[in-house]
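Annotated sample (chain length 210).
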Amino acid sequence: MSYQSAPDGTVVDVDQPQSQQNMFQASSHPVALLFLILFKSGALAIYLLGNFFTDNFVILFVLCVLILAVDFWTVKNISGRLLVGLRWWNEVLEDGTNEWIFESRDLSIPVNTSDSRIFWTVLYATPAIWSLLAIAAFFSLRFQWLLIVIIAVLLSGANLIGYQRCDKDQKKRWNQLASGSSATLVSGMMSGLMNNAITSGVVGRFFSRG
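Output written by the structure step:
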């Protein structure tokens, strides 16, 4: 059995087939992946199971909102940067308008496919699950709990929209870079052909008769 160190210092068993590895063994950043799942499942667990431990709505509300806020910040600033090489934020300019700012990894740095698949799945699934819970809370007339669900939908939806825009911006810049590289390559080939043609013509005339 042989092991190999990953770029982040974790040790991976290279002899174990990928299909037999769990998501944390296959991950390049298992700690970031753990907290991505932990915070989201923690907020859902408190919302769904909190009544079994206490009837105090205020305590459950504070705990849910606190975990949702920590999850929002962690996903926006840490999980996305480590798992898919993306990061986004929004700044308010002096004139009152908003400016979206995106960061993305270098094209030469690959992304772990397992990390990427889990990150995007969780990112899309979270607002969908909370939206279903919002519908259930509305029709069951649990309007206090609906407030928690609305906060969860807003925070998870903001991260989803932010990373969607960041991913589109990354692909757009990569396409522009690829187009620029192709244009530079074609320009260099044309210049080379032109120089060869001119040089060949001059040399031919120099050695020709008369």
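Annotation: Confidence is low (pLDDT under 50) at residues 1-14.
Annotation: The helical segments are 23-26, 30-49, 57-83, 113-139, 143-207.
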